[in-house]
Design a protein that fits this description.
The chain is mainly beta. It contains two helices and 19 strands. The chain is rod-shaped.
Length: 304
């Protein structure tokens, strides 16, 4: 009987031991089974992109060179199948690039391929600025094999602006003193740049002043019927001037002659062509000159 009880106890402990061993080894066995068929973990890469341009304020029809740099950060895995989506926006016409065929100027895709860690690839794209409107050239780096981390630096953009600053003054260089006298106005337009201004015209409509047009020194560029003075192009820093001679009426009085830049193909940074007076703050493309032709003073004639 004693032996039977002892045998039962030994059997119980052996069973318990086997159960414990089975319990303890279960996770290890699970682990073994996981390591037997491991999930493929894609390595991380951190691509980043920067862009710059050699002239952020190009003239219309000027060629400019964009530099696009894609980098794979130090500590990353080797990036493969790297591409950069870098299609030019409207108003920038591709001329050439140094990608050796890796840049498709139709789709805008730059195929970079393999990029080792802590290395970069650079592409220069030359494009013609075909319009005067502002534009933004944007690009995005893509690696379609590796897990890409830190996506905040995968995109870049660079803006360009074509702009001029036209300034107009009008001054009487000879004041009328008496009714019927001639007065000469000088209209001067200056381009403060930075870009050339094209298609520049000025409006000075003498019919609104009560004065009578006599002559001008514009060589046909001023139309006294429409009041339009055609300047054309003005380079950065250049000026154009026009002298208009007008006669004051015999009635005498005070006459106001206003002139304004009427058109420009390039936007102006601080004024709008052809929008007239803008009180209380007058734009710099608009100016007014007031002249007075006094009524005949009999005493003046008596003593002169
Ligand atoms: Ca990134
Ligand atoms: Ca201006
Ligand atoms: Ca204006």
């Amino acid at each position: 009987m004693q032996n039977s009880i002892r045998f039962s106890r030994v059997l119980f402990f052996i069973t318990l031991l086997i159960s414990l061993l089975a319990f303890v080894s279960a996770p290890a066995m699970l682990g073994d089974s996981a390591s037997a068929a491991p999930l493929k973990q894609a390595p991380d890469v951190d691509l980043s992109l920067t862009m710059s341009v050699n002239d952020a304020t190009p003239n219309k029809d000027q060629d400019i060179v964009f530099t696009i740099t894609v980098s794979n950060s130090a500590g990353s895995a080797v990036a493969t199948n790297v591409t950069v989506n870098a299609a030019l926006p409207a108003g920038l016409a591709w001329q050439t690039d140094d990608g050796g065929g890796a840049y498709n100027n139709g789709t805008g895709v730059w195929t970079v391929g393999v990029l080792a860690n802590n290395s970069n690839a650079v592409l220069h794209v030359t494009a013609k600025n075909t319009t005067t409107s502002p534009k933004t050239y944007s690009a995005a780096a893509v690696s379609n094999v590796e897990a890409v981390v830190n996506s905040g630096n995968d995109n870049a953009s660079v803006g360009i602006t074509t702009i001029a600053d036209l300034n107009l003054t009008i001054t009487p260089i000879s004041s009328a003193r008496f009714p019927g006298d001639n007065v000469v106005f000088t209209i001067k337009v200056t381009n403060g740049g930075p870009n050339v201004a094209t298609g520049v015209t000025v409006m000075d409509d003498l019919s609104l002043t009560g004065l009578t047009y006599v002559t001008d020194d514009g060589g046909g560029t001023y139309n006294d019927g429409t009041g339009i003075w055609i300047i054309g192009s003005l380079a950065n820093g250049d000026s154009a001037s026009l002298k208009i001679t007008a006669q004051t009426p015999l009635t005498g009085g005070v006459y106001t002659n206003s002139a304004e830049v009427w058109t420009s193909a390039e936007p102006d940074n601080d004024s709008t062509p052809g929008n007239g007076p803008t009180p209380p703050t007058q734009e710099d493309d608009y100016d007014t000159s007031v002249i007075t032709a006094e009524k005949a003073d009999l005493n003046y004639y008596q003593y002169c």
